[in-house]
Amino acid sequence: MSRVRTRPTRDDTREKLFEAAARVCEEQGIGGASIEDIAAAAGFTRGAFYSNFKSKDELVIAMMEEHVEQSIRRMHELLAEHKTLPDFINALRNMDRSKQDPLGRSPLLHMEMILFVARAEKRRPELAKRLRARRKLIADIVETTAKNSGKNGILNPAWVGAVVLALEDGFRLHRLIDPETPADSFLRAIADLQRAIGIPSS
After folding, report:
1. Is 170 helix (H, G, I), strand (E, B) or coil?
2. What are phi and psi of 2, to 5 degrees?
3. pTM for the full model?
């Protein structure tokens, strides 16, 4: 008779460490969070941490990589179902945020990680790589939805992608500073841009 597996898999362990790191880093800041605190919050020993990551830096980079990969996958799935820009924006507005990864759920943690990576020159290429991936994702969405809306060729998708990404991060920061900033500010701004370039809202 075969034994039932009771030990967590490597993926399970990494996911628990990501969730624990998100909680600890949000409370203490990435600089103040220790490996011991993160491991304890996940219910693991320090040794379990080091069996998955060589350092806190490696954990942070892995969390960012997971966030970007999940975002790309989720947005492409959404785009496959909602092919025009108005439909896509409405789908984004109604998306279940509780299913997002820790970075997607927490604007504070997102900004904390950007600052943590940007402060050290050796980490910046990793951050830049993820930034370019996010920018390309948005450019692909702009290009596809514009084409499906009959507006192909009127936009520079790469530039619009950069503008949209800057808007997203900007409104995320504004909402952290001023809670009265409307939660849907980013999507409202995108809808305004949509109208400005002549794409109908329905």
Report:
1. helix
2. -80, 150
3. 0.75
